[in-house]
Specification:
There is one protein chain. The chain is of the alpha/beta class and 231 residues long. It folds into two domains: 11-120, Rossmann fold, CATH 3.40.50; 126-230, Rossmann fold (3-Layer(aba) Sandwich), CATH 3.40.50. Helix content is 35%, strand content 24%. The protein has helices at 19-31, 57-64, 78-88, 102-115, 155-167, 188-197, 214-224, and strands spanning 11-14, 35-39, 47-48, 51-54, 68-71, 92-95, 118-120, 126-129, 133-136, 145-152, 172-177, 203-207, 229-230. A seven-stranded mixed sheet has the order 3-4-2-1-5-6-7, with helices on both faces. The protein has a six-stranded mixed sheet with strand order 9-8-11-10-12-13, sandwiched between helices. Helix 3 (78-88) packs parallel to helix 4 (102-115) and helix 6 (188-197) packs parallel to helix 7 (214-224). The radius of gyration is 17 Å and the shape is globular.
Length: 231
Amino acid sequence: MAILVDKESKVLVQGITGSAGKFHTKRMLEYGTQIVGGTSPGKGGQEIEGLPVFDTVDECIDNTEADTLVIFLPAPFVKEAAIEAIYAGIKFVVVIPEHIPIFDMMEIRQEAKKYGATVLGGNTAGIITPGEVNLGIMPDIAFSPGRVGTVSRSGSLTYYVADTLTRSEYGETTCVGLGGDPVLGSTFDEILMMFEKDKQTKAVVMVGEIGGVYEERATSVIKKMKTPVIV
């Protein structure tokens, strides 16, 4: 099992025709991620890595049944892109770019809550369920399937912890990059509760960061969890 994404996830890439979108789409496909298409307004009808490009998220969903989104767009365009996807019915959104305007991210989180969607980021390295799906910019060499979940605000520490778990043969169920921006789509306490419900996850490593209240918010949840949490 895994949380949020697995090999069945049908992934849409917003900004697939940009340099970052193209590069990481190729990487994610090589890992085995089931990417079904991408969007770039005005470029519908093109193909990237053999995948169809659509003008809108609605078109992509109608043609591919996409249910998961990863965004590779400049920060000023993220709010419109994410909310378009949430309104179209996407239930999981990964926001890779950093420095999303604070009010924009507050709006994204508000709309996600209203429509029952989960958002990671901004400024996240992404999420990986080893051996199944890699969404974002995580270097897959550090990860291996196993029994420990991780959630971190730092991308580099996500890789470091996973590499340590891999080398010690514990492996990982899912590794979640919460994001480093001031306002985030998801919080530690929300992700920890997902791991608590996952039968394959036998322990969780949580990595905080200086500043903010997300770590403090997690304390009340950790006290209630049966799954051990290493912080």
